[in-house]
Amino acid sequence: MAVLGKFLTRSRAWPVAGLALHAGNGVAFGLALDRARLRMRSSPPRLALTLALTEHVMLFPLGALVDRFHPARGEPGLATLFSRRAFAQATVRHALFGVVLGRLAR
């Protein structure tokens, strides 16, 4: 949320902005999952997990650009995105998101 919120605003409202944008991304992903499920006739849990991890692996390299060019880089609360530790944590989070979304989509 800090990456998104502090990109939009540097005021104290950054957590609200970050949460809104992050939630919007989740909704967009859920809608894309529903469309893919209808086209592929695949099981929602497996498809959701596959798509969540695919999205993570494809977009993770952009973290290097965020680390270098984000307007709030170096500020407290804005951790480095492009590292092995960040990759591992994001992998677990995306897998959990995929599993939960897949079960809800049944």
Tally of structural domains:
1
Low-confidence stretches: none
**If you compute it from the alpha carbons, what radius of gyration comes out, rounded to the nearest whole angstrom?**
15 Å
| Average pLDDT figure | 92
Major sheet details? none
Strand content: under 5%
Number of strands: 0
Number of helices: 5
The residue fraction in helices comes out at over 70%
Per the principal axes of the C-alpha atoms, what is the gross shape?
globular
Structural class: mainly alpha
Distance between the termini: 28 Å
Task: Give, in order, the helices and strands.
Answer: HHHHH
Task: Provide structural commentary.
Helices cover 75% and strands 0% of the residues. It has helices spanning 2-8, 14-40, 44-59, 62-69, 84-105. It is globular and about 45 Å long. It is mainly alpha-helical and 106 residues long. The protein has one domain (2-105).
Summarize the structure.
By secondary structure, the protein is mainly α.
What descriptive keywords fit this protein?
mainly alpha, 5 helices
Helix and strand arrangement:
Elements lengths: L1 H7 L5 H27 L3 H16 L2 H8 L14 H22 L1
Helix pairs in contact: 1-2, 2-3, 3-5
